[in-house]
Amino acid sequence: MERRLTLNKNAVMLVKKMIKNKEDLNIDVQQMENGVMIIDGGVKTKGGYRAGKYFIEICLGGMGKASFGSFDLQSYQLPSVEVRVDHPLEACMLSQYAGWKVESGDFFAMASGPGRILLKEEELYEEFSEYHENERVPAVIVLESSELPDLEAADYIADKLSTPCDDVYILTAPAESLTGSIQISGRIVETGLHKMHELNFDLRKIESGWGSCPISPVAADNLTAIGRTNDAVLYGGTAYYTVFCEDEEIEDLIDKIPSNSSKDYGESFLKLFKKYNNFYDIDPMLFSPARVIITNRKTGSSFSAGSINYEILKKSFFGGQ
Q: Which residues of 102-124 are buried (b: 16+ CB within 10 A; e: fewer)?
């Protein structure tokens, strides 16, 4: 049965709130010559918690909520982000998942957000072809990048999305910014969904998701930030899902979902990155929450696997102090 989504419409409403409150959010907004609107959440601005919360909820296409909590790491107490979604397939995989490599001239970034559904190039949308979004809608894309897109990149994005430039909104924040660190931790539910998808579990059977993840301390450089933000999810994140299926489907799956099922588990992400010298050579099975809990609404049974690795988090965030 065909399902019509309003991911971009929902996201644009949130983007316009950001623009209206840009000073309070410590962000900058610029309209380029071609009409594309650029929202800088941390490249040349400070950004912050409120901006990070907006980034998460915009990435989710307005179909999820984010809030803040705390995470105890021995002598340190860190902020954490909590995410909850009642339509996890739509919000996380069809919107939040960073499935588009934007390459234009010298500019490169991974793109997430609801605008991806207008791209029509990812295999994911062929698999879930029953989901559609009106083509004549504004488009919202979120980039993880230490640079703002130039005019050529903005034109490229608008062209790929088949959207008039003055209806395109591009949000950008680097991993080394507070906004960026928050929005990456806010992918905790999506990361688990993606892993289950890789393990061939039917994501339509997942009814809701909740996740909690520490927000890694900001780093002075991009590479260190990428290491810390990934460690926050892989070694500190917890995801909880409600599903409707047979217990056997979960029993066959549960131990394979957490990050500790990977052959590369046990080293900080920065060490792994330097070891392989290529992000894509790292075992893809590593990219998942540290701990996963699943409750089956059909039977009332619950299943759990994985654990928080406090030692690696401490070394990653604070050098093992």
A: bebeebebebbbbbbbbbeeeeb
